[in-house]
Amino acid sequence: MPARDRLSAAFVKSAPAGKHCDGQGLWLIKRENGGAQWVLRMTIHGRRREMGLGGYPSVTLAQARRRADDWRSVAERGDDPVKERQKQAREAARADPTLRTVALEAFEARKAELKGDGKAGRWFSPLELHVLPKLGRVPVEDIDQRDIRDTLAPLWHTKADTARKALNRLGIVLKHAAALGLDVDLQATEKAKALLGKSRHEAQNIPAMAWAEVPAFYATLTEQTVTQLAMRLLILTGVRSGPLRTLRLEQIDGDIWTIPAKAMKGRKGATSDFRVPLSSEALAVIDLASPFARNGFLFANSRGTVLSDMTLSQHMKRMKLEARPHGFRSSLRDWLAETTDAPHEVAETMLGHATGGAVVRAYRRTDFLEQRRVLLERWADHVTGGAGIVVKLVGAAK
């Protein structure tokens, strides 16, 4: 019999990204973003089967081992654990076929696909806040487009994005109910959308700080805390908060930060990693933040996992500012447009945007790294109030 109980609770808590075997088919899959999932691998009737046992740390090592033992027992008697669990889920849904029960089951089934196993609550919250209070106790088989319309109508023209997310999640829940064998109307959400009509809500841009005001705000970030250091690097690089919060030490090589392609947003058609040249000020911030690094993350929270996406926003709210962290990308873009003659392609690449059509991108072999290096050094000089060295961009920006 293969060895078992290879992992320890201490190792699991600080395990690096990768796959770690506890023995007898039980694996801990640790993702780069800090999330982790327990997976049990078995061979049933000559077929390899794999089933998730829950996310860590909500499921501890001891709990994962007990669950693994339970499902191994099912396999030993000749049954397929995956199908058995599906059968149990169907029976549970039939026993209490309310929308809330099925929605929670659908959320549990999707956790492994969500960032941090959905702990931030962003996937489930549109349902929890806007759908389940009215429809949670209704049998899922009874829900039709009129129920959905009446539930989301108050949001449809005022909080369109929230309503859209709630409608999307509800559609997923109905598909999950159908997979459980329940008789639901899979077209109910589309029908409800038709009944609701076109939203009159106009999207609002994320509030941004004027580029001329950024130095004064940057000067307030004097504390050597994870939050303030992360805010400083966010401003200096112009990246989105996602790649910044999940920045791992191995992504930095000298004065280049390489963001994995999968972590980038807004680069439709781009499959390559994105290189960010680091200014002298940015490197100094990274040096200050390095002692706080935990589990490979430069900006980790007190539990050693990825910094929450609300942390930076809350800091600006506490300062009574209307602007939000994402808005610093607009600050940088406006500064480029108003104070430099950086070509459009270079300026857009500064923000990680893919420019040109697929054919143009296929033939373009440059990411304008050196031009961006000069511009980001000048941007750092601006946000630090002129404390840096002004560098001229030859042939691209003055």
From TrEMBL:
CDD domains registered for this protein in UniProt: INT_P4_C
Pfam families per UniProt: Arm-DNA-bind_3, Phage_int_M, Phage_integrase
Compositional bias per record (Basic and acidic residues), positions renumbered to this chain: 70-94
Organism from which the protein derives: Pseudoprimorskyibacter insulae
Recorded family membership: Belongs to the 'phage' integrase family.
Record-annotated Tyr recombinase domain positions: 204-376
Sample GO molecular function, one term: DNA binding
Gene (UniProt): intS
PANTHER family the UniProt entry points to: PROPHAGE INTEGRASE, PROPHAGE INTEGRASE INTS-RELATED
Entry keyword annotation includes DNA-binding: yes
GO biological process, one term: DNA integration
Protein name: Prophage integrase IntS
This protein's UniProt keywords: DNA integration, DNA recombination, DNA-binding
